[in-house]
Every structure is written in C-alpha cells, then in structure tokens.
Amino acid sequence: MKSTRLLPALIVAMLAIPSVLLATSGSFRGIIVEPPESDAKHGVIYIKGRNGLVRKVDISAAVIVYGDSVPREKRQNKPESALKSGTDVRVTAEQGDSGNWKASEIEIVGPDDDRQRPVERQKPALVDEHTSVT
Description:
Layout: H1 2-15, H2 19-22, E1 24-33, E2 44-48, E3 54-58, E4 63-66, E5 88-95, E6 101-110
Parallel strand pairs: 3-6, 4-6
Antiparallel strand pairs: 1-2, 1-5, 2-3, 5-6
C-alpha cells in the first residue's frame, strides 16, 4: 500500500525538476574571434577553441572577471569592454536543447595586447549541438 502512495509523489517530484538542471553545463577556453558579418549581435561572442571549432556564446547574463594572470595595469575598468577579438577567455556556460551556449561566467585569462594572436576573418565552423564538453 505504501508503494502506491509513493508513486504519485515520485512522479510529481520528477516533473517539478526545473529544465535548468537538465541543461548540459561545461567550461571551455579559447580566443574570441570576429563574428560572421551576418551575425554581429550585442551580447553574443564567438570563441575559437584549441580544436579549431567555434562556439557561439550568449554573454548577456554572464559575470565577467579578470583572471589572476592579467596584470592590474592591463585591466580596464569594465571587464566586458575587454571582450574583443584576440582575448583569451575561460567560459562557464550551459548548453541548451538548441545547442546554444549561455555563459554564467567569463574569466579573461589573457590580455589582447602585444600577445594577441592574429585575428582570422573567416566564417566560424560552429560546434555541433550534440558535441560534448571536455
């Protein structure tokens, strides 16, 4: 008799789990690259990883911080203004059902000054929505 009462409660509990908990979270690092001309939007950046693939990341709700490796004299007052092509970043984000990444935190790991890598103007090869994060 107890198991018949427990089953409806278990079903309700499973349905109450927010979809946020079901999203894939991950952390990845890369260099910010120029967006395709057709997709230059405020609040979105493209990050090219070491494997050459590019992820489109929504940064509208992200906390942006400088890492310890960035000297204080190289930091700007508003870290978000340092998010431009060539900047080395580490991103903590969740990948939704559609494959889009929504960042919760962006750490600026390297400055975009004299150590900046050349910016490639190319159409990014977006990561497949089913690609796992390492």
